[in-house]
Design goal:
mainly alpha; globular; single chain; 0% strand; 202 residues
Length: 202
């Protein structure tokens, strides 16, 4: 029960941190939060769908790919995480408005919150959804930190987003990923009060 409560708290915090970073800082500047964020921006560009629901659709679609490999429990926890993130994005976009924005500050602060949220989720054995599922699978197979495969997959999607929308997005997204991935790996490895990495079992 204690482990369940700890894991639930970290998943909620991870989802809210992600949603805050994306909804308040990154998405208002059209900066993709990652591969799923890039695909959500493309979906938002083509269809009249707000970013929160668009991100949920992309994340859920990619989550289906990882359920057979990573297990139903993993899928359920990840579904909870991506839902909290999408609801948080929608909430923060509606109720927090920043005037006189600075793209530099938004990029740095948003990326730190994004990386913290993803790191907390992965620390508990939960993916942040989207291409994070693929990164988690590669991380498990090769016994490496999830940051590197996540970065490589995201770069491919950023390139596609840049071709469709704007090349400015590509460079901003790369900087955001460089910051957030380092935060992800730091959170993933860092021990606070001997906090364990809560692995999932199928």
């Amino acid at each position: 029960m204690k482990q369940f409560i700890l894991k639930s708290g970290l998943v909620i915090c991870g989802g809210v941190f992600q949603g805050f970073g994306m909804g308040v800082f990154l998405f208002p500047q059209a900066i993709p939060s990652g591969g799923a964020g890039g695909l959500a921006i493309i979906l938002n560009h083509w269809l009249p769908i707000s970013m929160g629901p668009a991100l949920w659709i992309v994340n859920f679609s990619l989550l289906l790919l990882g359920i057979n490999y990573l297990g139903k429990r993993f899928g359920l926890w990840t579904l909870i995480g991506i839902t909290i993130t999408s609801v948080s994005i929608h909430f923060f976009e509606q109720y927090i408005i920043i005037v006189n924005r600075s793209i530099g500050y938004d990029l740095i602060i948003g990326s730190v919150f994004l990386g913290t949220g993803i790191g907390l989720l992965m620390r508990t054995g939960v993916s942040n959804g989207g291409v994070g599922v693929l990164a988690f699978m590669i991380s498990h197979q090769r016994n490496i930190l999830p940051g590197r495969p996540l970065f490589l997959i995201n770069c491919i999607i950023f390139f596609l987003t840049a071709v469709i929308i704007s090349w400015k997005i590509f460079f901003l997204a790369l900087i955001s990923q460089w910051i957030s991935i380092r935060v992800v790996d730091f959170i993933f490895e860092f021990n606070v009060y001997r906090l364990p990495i809560l692995a999932n079992k199928k």
